[in-house]
Amino acid sequence: MEKISIQQLMKLYLDTMDKCGVYLLNESDQVIAHHIFEEFDTGVISFLHINSLQALYDAGWITNEVVCKSSALRTLVMELQQGKEWNIYAVRHSPSWRKVLELADEIKKDNTWDTFI
């Protein structure tokens, strides 16, 4: 298997983060389903994994704070995957999902990576 470059890893991380946020509450059920349950879900597994985050941190592309928040976000999402709130209604109404959406926005606000891409 071919190893992806740090630049590609960063792009995939950013793409993952772009699929989650409070903005989704204003979107259709179809957009939420696609962004959260297809795109974000897949990215959380790979690009918010500690090994990916560590590689981005080691390359100087994300801060330790972003690593910690991204790791916490991954944990929250993986917990939701195992429960009864893995659905569009819960994304719109659950306090657990609100925490996920707000944390994603917080991480994006903390970014220092605009100059790298």
Automatic annotation (TrEMBL):
Q: Would you say which domain of life the source belongs to?
A: Bacteria
**Name of the protein in its database record:** Uncharacterized protein
Write down the species: Paenibacillus bovis
Supply the source organism's classification: Bacteria, Bacillati, Bacillota, Bacilli, Bacillales
